[in-house]
Amino acid sequence: FRGEAIPAIASVSKMKIASKTVDSEPYEVTYDGGKLSSEGFAPMNIGTIVTINHLFYNVPARLKYIKSPQAELAHMLEVCDEMMLSNPSIAFLVTHDDKIVRQSYGDQNYQHLFNSVYGTEVASNLIEYHTNKDDIEISAYLVKPVVTRSKKNDIVILVNGRTIKNYLLINSVVEGYHTHLMVGRYPIALIDIHLDASLIDVNVHPQKREIKFSNEYIIATLIRETIRKAFESKPLSIPNVLQKEDKYLKVSGFELLFSEIEEAPIYPDQKVTSPERKLPDMDYIGSYAGTYLLYQNHDGLYLIDQHAAAERIRYERIYTKLGDVTQTTQPLLTPIQLQFKPSAAETIQDNLSLIKSYGLILEPFGDYTYLLREKPAWLEDKDIDYMVYGFIDQLQDYQKIDVALLRDQLAKDISCKGAIKANKALSIDEVNHLFKALQACSNPYYCPHGRPVIVSFSLYEIEKMFKRIV
Predict the structure, then answer these.
(1) HSE-up of 105 (CA within 13 Å, CB side)?
(2) Which of 48, 168, 169, 256 could form a disulfide with 19 if both were Cys (CB 3.0 to 4.6 A apart)?
């Protein structure tokens, strides 16, 4: 405790502090509402024990705003998580109702530490990388992007052993992951920075959560380089492209709902109609680099990114389908176990009936763990995480579920996964169908992630480059 914290807490609670050093006798004092009520010797081993009971008992107005015990416990556990991550050499034991809810062993093993805080799936995907440049030491503990979050809350920055919040440094972590992350997804990472104390000013925030660097842009650049080197030194596994495909088509989840927009055979007689076309008619003349389709008309030359075009087409169709989905649920033969942070678990517990109305049947299964018993029939297993965490984020931010926003994010993620890839050769029939479908889109100019689908070169610009027009 800092000096002023002890009397502040003692004034609104019943506090007992007992302590013993190697050279002193064990002694304890008890305060009741800030007043000394008893003191004397106490039987105990070397160390200090602080016991606080009946918090805010003498301040009814403040006590009124205490949330439920589960919500308060969730907030306390998040504080404990930060303390555990910033002090790997100290063993922590957190109990609630005689149950162990957090435990670290002080063995400085970050895989054990991440397992205690985030769970086994996160810990099994941990990468460690250390670097030292210009007397700045950075230790990066990065979770592979197979496990991501929809918010930046799980990016932890430590400076000389203290947790801080810094917008630039947190964004540098995201930038370090670069293209490993889907748009709107954020990593789980711990960045431990050690540098000369003269290069920072910690006296800019009462809780020391914000600090000033002599040049924070140097730190941000070093973080980005460290993360990129970490992935270069320990690259992610490459999918086995030689694995034979199943003879029979597996149809489930989204494939069942969106079977008509799968990549496999595209026929020219599949007509796509649109009340208003936003792209002019043009003639296909070839492709470049296996990715860009070349078209021409009397106005000039056009290049279409086939992957971005397929993404846009799938996005608009999937977005519409998600809006029309009926809440038919599919029982799971083997329930899926989902583990959450305390605050997320509290949100789920308070909104189980609301989440159930959207087709997700969850039931408690121990501390901060739930079993998914049923899911919407149209939801693919690999997309459950996106939907569940989408619900949690919206409920925490807005206390309600914005279906339109959720549809948008799900459609973006799914459209990218199933779209035609770059460097894939297309037949003339496939090219024609792709272009007609793109013409039918409400926004054929950009993919769902904001990249351009089509660019043009006017005939005037081309002739000027060849000096036909001076």
Answers:
(1) 10
(2) 48
Q: Where are the alpha helices (DSSP H) in 212-341?
A: 216-233, 254-257, 306-324
- Confidence tier at 276 by pLDDT (50, 70, 90): low
The string of DSSP codes covering 354-409 is HHHTTT-EEEE-STTEEEEEEEETT--GGGHHHHHHHHHHHHHHHSS--HHHHHHH
Phi, psi of 101 (to 5 degrees): -105, -20
pLDDT tens readout for residues 366-409? 888 999 999 887 777 777 887 788 778 777 765 666 666 666 77
Q: Are residues 386 and 275 in the same domain?
A: yes
Task: Read off the CATH number of the domain in which 423 is found.
Answer: 3.30.1540.20
Q: Domain range spanning residue 157?
A: 125-233
Q: By mean pLDDT, which of 191-195, 240-244, 258-262 is the weakest?
A: 240-244
Is residue 418 included in any domain, yes or no? Answer: yes
Asked whether residue 189 is domain-assigned, the answer is yes
Domain identity same for 17 and 138? no
Take residue 435 and report the two structure tokens written for it: 């272009």
Q: Are 200 and 211 in contact (CB under 8 A)?
A: yes
Q: What is the pLDDT of residue 250?
A: 42
Are 226 and 256 in the same domain? no
Give the count of domains, the chain: 3
